[in-house]
Amino acid sequence: MSNLAQYTFIPWFRQGLAVKINEKDSYAALGQDGSVDERAHLEIELFLEDTTISDKSISENIIRKDVAIYGPGDIRGIDNRAIIRTEPKAGINNYEANNLAYIEFYEEDFPWRYTPANPDDSNQTIAKRLRPWLTLVVLKDDEYTLNTQGEQGLSSITITQATIDISFPEPSEIWAWAHVQINRELSHTNGIPLVNDVTNELENNPDIGISRLICPRKLQKKTQYTAFLIPSFETGRLIGIDNKTTGIKAQQPAWRLTASGGAPAPDTNIEFPFYFHWRFHTGEYGDFESLVSILKPIITDPENGKMPMDIQSPGYALDGMADTPTLGFEGALKPPNFKSDPFQELPGNADFIEQLRKTLNLSTDLAEDQNNTDNTALDLDHPFYSAADNAVDDPIVTPPTYGIWHALIPKLPVASDINKSWINELNLDPRYRGGAGLGTTTVQKNQEKLMDEAWKQVGEINKANEKIRQAELAKMVSGRIYKKHITRGSNDRLLSITNPMHNRVLSSDATRTVTVNQDFRNSRIPLVAKSAAFRRIVRPNRKLNRKINHQASTKTAIHQQLLSNFNRDEAKNDAITAAKLKILPINTLSIKETADAIEEQQQNYNIDPNFLARDAFVEFFLTRSDDTLSNRNAWIAAINADSSLASDVRVLLIELVNAITAFQLQPDGDLKITLEQLTYEKFYGTGSSAKRYQILLIQKKDEVDIQHVGPITTQAEIQQFQTDFNLLQSVVTGMKTPTHLPILSNFNLIKKDLRQKLHPALTISKRVISQIKVWNGVAMQAIEELKPVMAYPEFKDPVYEHLKKISQDFILPNVEKLPQDSITILQTNQRFIESYMVGLNHEMARELLWREFPTDQRGSCFRQFWDIRDNLFENDPEKQFDIKKMHEWRNSLGNNRARTWNENDPEDDGNIVLVVRGQLLLKYPNTMVFAQKAAYDTNDPREQRVLAPDSDADNIKYPLFSAQLEPDIFLFGFDFSIDQARGVRIRNNSGNPVTSDPGWFFVFKERPGQIKFGLDDYADEMGDTSGLPPTSNPNKWNDLTWEHLVDNKADLSTYCITFDKTLLPTSPPLGEPVPKWGNNAADLASILYQNPVIFARHAGEMLPKEEED
After folding, report:
1. Distance from C-alpha of 66 to C-alpha of 40, rounded to nearest angstrom
2. Distances in Å between the alpha carbon of 180 and those of 77, 183, 190, 834?
3. Structure-model confidence comparison of residues 199 and 824, the more confident one
4. Sign of the Cα pseudo-torsion (355, 359, 364, 367, in order)
5. Phi-psi region for residue 1014, left (φ > 0), alpha (ψ -120 to 50) or beta?
6. What distance in Å separates the CA atoms of residue 325 and residue 308, rounded to the nearest whole number?
7. CB 960, CB 882: distance < 8 Å
């Protein structure tokens, strides 16, 4: 689990010169506005040190200066970029009236930067209070007059003293409405350590902190407000309206309240400049907590699950036949303990049911021309016809028999098949026929849109069927070609024609997995013999080939047995080869002989002292340092001191050194050595006038024009050459010697395989079948044979949305009876849902047939009744649907769910559905709604049940589906039963918390977002907000409400938070610091901070008569 976000609130923060202000905050005490005018002052001390030159004596002087610093009277505007956020956002029209407006600044010290005082540190409590130089106020539209912009660029408003009294905070308490927020937990809570912590955090991450101003005014519902950022001190107010501040005390507040004294008359107009403003509108409803707390749990009356349906006059000779005049028409949801009205099981309705069956079967009976007692056309005075003689000829239109194509039966049977009982239940019960009829209406109303979507899906099916038709044509044409050229042609012609395919045809040899082409490549038959170019060369009508064929001893033409002759042993007379094997030319030098020669030269080099002295000469001068480059004696001494040199080599090396006539270091870095001519020729020969090795250039004396500079070959280079040649020798030695490839042993088998595997009936069918895939409801799968694809479109959108457009009563019967701000539990009515879905699929099948759609009318186009888009936890695609595919229905009506269904539990006939009506989910659509397992109180199981730990994944269940009804009803389906949800409430000592089931809670969890400050509106445990305000302190600060702050609830209409009342939580959380009401801005921010809310109701509160234990 990720770590929770942590905030630290700090009551004030300053940095820079302002921390040195000597003036102490008077906190707007009446008649105590400080001792300085206009601006705060600092005492600056300059230390001067004077040193006398003569005696080096030092004298010190201190110069003191009283300096005024910038204050509110110097501020004529602020940069809007300093503001990073407002709450609410500008222009919002449904802000929660129980919350407070605020404004945030990027710089942590901004609200106190120009305050002309520092906190009074005479005691620890007051030391945490410092008035900001800015204040945030919110005003209604009729409470102020907007003035034109002043000369200094600031706009202003004019308000009366009476408005100030009801909308402005007490000036002595504005320290409570500004604070700093650090988005991290700090180690220290006050004093210099706290300042150091904040400074260090801000240096590491400047974005980790903000400053904030809160407006303490209680907002009213459905009201337009404008928030103004105004100066807190009189000097700021006066300079903002272009007045002088001379003689005004620096700490004088910009306003006073009448109740505190010192204020002008209530009708006095006062002008205030403002630095920033924005507008917003409050909504009718409060915040998340207030909206969720007023949701009242109710138990729905079982009779609310049905609506009266008159079946006395259905027509079709059925009028008055049923003993039951009205039936309770049901909907997609039903209350707990709901009982359907009996109908088919009542003996008095048997005639009605039988007559209805005969009417539905009439069309089929007449088409079959069955003249028996079951034929309504012969034994009833029926309105379908006027005379029995022409009944069979007249067109007969009867009511539809829903689902008949999916059930694969021609008509309704007299005694229903146990595996198809659903079709009789649906078609012979007016309630469920009505549900299916609603499905028919839905398709008819949306037929064009549905068919557009169907044709988009079938576009691929039409392409597939077109490809299948083309494949059949290709099989026919290719079959003719195959018969003429493959079946009847010669073997050589077969192999030549099919050559391009040999790379794609596998050999039939089970021991190897190679292609036919690879078999030929491994044989003595040259691949070119199968090529088109070679085939042109051996055409029988070429002049040369006609002559060869005519002179041949046998009557077989050359082109007819060419490949067969290539596949013969070279010893046979009629064998053909592409070319003879290459052999080495005469007198070719072998690579071994070359290697031996190199080895011999290497040995000769190693025993020749001239060569070794020459190597030593090169090495000697390449390793000399600069200080020994021109000292011949030093050279000879170094040579004599080198014990690694053989004596004969040393003598020759000294000879070379003594033969040096010139020794020069060239500008380009080369080292040029000139040798006596005889010595040069002795060691380096006469073939060149100079030799070079790396930077060393050795030149023959008296050579004016150097024509050729040869390289110096050293022993190391000869060794490297020998190493490289040995590598070449290893590569050449590993090369294979060309030999005749073997004959192709399975030559005849290959010809046979080619004829079989290239048959058009096999190749074309296999190719096309692999390219065409259809959706089987779970995944794409290839077709099995080349026959036209009969498919059906699938509509994944939840169809309840179509049904609610007809009437929401068909989703939730008697929906208007559901109280506002209520929460209850219902069940899905699977019988109705299946009836409606059958009607949809039946009518869609008729529409598809009418529109010439390629279908067999057995497809289940609609299977999704509820909305499952938010269900991310079901991995089985089939279980996401509300019904099985209709052609797979084997159970009675209502028992064909695709989701979990307990066949052994007769009471398990629907999912449990949480129904919520209210503004909560409209205003907070991202609310998390889920079920959480309950648990018994560990101290006393008879107490209220509590939430089980959410750390166990099995204790949490998320909705399977959801739905929304207008205007404010939300439905959430869960996969447990009524009894499981209710659980057992232990009320006496006989209950066993170990063996009893505590049931489930339904939880509403607010998603954390932008931080909010405010208080809740008071409501009792049942969500009633009309009661009297609380008279006692809250249990904990999170229970504090607006009503705790006033004596009369009516006072909240003109209320701005004050600290007149002494408030203290009676049961604060153990082990946590308890902030104090009215102590400092950090404590107030902590108390007013609105934590994300989690609200839970036990299912037992919304279900009838729970079991007692």
Report:
1. 10
2. 22, 10, 13, 60
3. 824
4. positive
5. left
6. 10
7. no
Residue 830 CA to residue 912 CA, distance in Å, equals 11
Q: Which residues contact 1008 (CB under 8 A, 6 or more apart)?
A: 5, 1092
Q: Which of these, 903, 1100, 846, 902, lies nearest to 986 by C-alpha position?
A: 1100
Angle (nearest 5°) at CA 715 between 712 and 720: 100
Q: How far apart are CA 137 and CA 14, in angstroms?
A: 23
Are 479 and 761 a contacting pair, CB within 8 Å? yes
CA 999 to chain CA centroid, Å, is: 34
Residue positions counted in the chain: 1109
Query: Does residue 333 register a pLDDT over 90?
Result: yes
List beta partners, residue 225: 140, 280
Sign, Cα dihedral of 339, 345, 348, 353: positive
The Cα 380–Cα 360 span in angstroms is: 14
Q: Inform me whether the pLDDT recorded for 325 exceeds 60.
A: yes
Query: CB-based contacts of 101: which residues, under 8 Å, 6+ apart?
Result: 86, 87, 88, 95, 136, 138, 214, 215, 217, 219, 225, 227, 280
Instruction: Give pLDDT tens digits for 215-262.
Output: 999 999 999 999 999 999 999 999 999 888 888 999 999 999 998 888
Helix 447-481 with 430-445: angle, nearest 10 deg:
70
Structure tokens at 936: 């018994």
Q: CA–CA separation, 296 vs 581, rounded Å?
A: 101
pLDDT number for residue 657: 82
Structure tokens at 160: 């009366």
d(C-alpha 980, C-alpha 720), whole Å: 88
Residue type, 713: T
874-878 — which CB contacts under 8 Å span 24+ positions? 874/960, 877/777, 877/778, 878/777, 878/778
**pTM to 2 decimal places:** 0.65
CA dihedral in degrees (1030, 1035, 1036, 1042; nearest 10)?
A: 0
Q: State phi, psi for 664 to the nearest 5 degrees.
A: -130, 140
Using DSSP's 3-state secondary structure scheme, residue 592 falls into: helix
- Residue 367: is its pLDDT beyond 80? no
CA–CA separation, 90 vs 179, rounded Å?
22
Angstrom distance (rounded) from CA 301 to CA 339: 11
pLDDT tens profile 802-838: 999 999 999 999 999 999 999 999 999 999 999 999 9
**Residue keyed to tokens 């040199």:** 645
**CB distance 432 to 835 below 8 Å:** yes
- Return the biggest CA–CA distance within the chain: 151
Q: How far apart are alpha carbons 69 and 114 in whole angstroms? A: 9
Residue 326 pairs with which residues in a beta bridge? 310
Q: Give the contacts of 924 (CB within 8 A, at least 6 positions apart).
A: 288, 291, 1006, 1007
Euclidean distance between CA atoms 841 and 795, whole angstroms: 11
| Helix (H) / strand (E) containing 607 | helix 591-607
* Residues 414, 397: Cα–Cα separation, whole Å: 21
Compute the CA torsion angle 972, 973, 978, 982 (nearest 10 deg). -40
Domain coordinates in residue numbering, the chain = 8-284, 499-567, 591-733
SS3 367: helix
Report how far residue 153's alpha carbon sits from residue 579's, in angstroms, rounded to the nearest whole number: 103
